[in-house]
Give the backbone structure.
Amino acid sequence: MNRNVLVHLLPVLYEPEEVRGGIAVILDILRSSTTITHALAHGATAVIPSLEVATAQRIAGGFPGDAVLTGGERGGVLIPGFDLDNNPFAYASDVVRGKTIVFTTTNGTRALQRSAPAARILIGAFVNFTAVVRILTQDPRPVHLVCAGTDGKITIEDALGAGAIALGLAAAVHEPIEEWADDQLQIAVRLYRDATQSPEAFRRAMRNSSGGRTCRRLGFDDQIDRAATFDLFDIVPEYQAETGRITP
């Protein structure tokens, strides 16, 4: 029997009940998934996602000042009064180790909230690609690869991430991916195959994606390359809907 693997190119393209009992992998490649993975890999205790800036500030106010950092972005840049933006390079060990990060972005947080009924909710990115595939290989439950998108629109970078993970999982379980009967998955796989005919083609696809164009406009070219790097870390952040926390 083939694995039950689905791609959702936007959170609004599935009903929350559809993911119940399965594993949801949230993909917000540029840049929330990448940044959260950096933070936890570098020793942050937890990341608490928040949809609204005011809510993030209120949550952070409940911690001792030396135990918490606020992070996130609006319009791609640092929120006034926040400690950190959505730049993965900012979440270095000497900054985040032992801290709780209260983190607010719109697209990734909405995807997390919509996936709350899932049995497990993982944070996926290229930087932890193999670790994500390994968990999915070991857990036989249905897999939902959830692309966060941007402002309700499909983004190439998240679809590329979904295509990569789908192909990696198919290879790991020795199943022909062409038999996985989900059109959104097939779209993501074809996009990824087309975009990875060479390293230059993949870099070009990432740079010309929605998130890539935003990063280039803001002068964040190095963050695009960072998000496009495979297997920097061997951790998979996991969101606990009951506690509202993401932990390693």
User: Anything to note?
Assistant: The beta strands are 5-8, 23-27, 46-50, 68-72, 100-104, 120-124, 143-147, 238-240, 245-247. The mean pLDDT is 96. The longest helix spans residues 156-172.
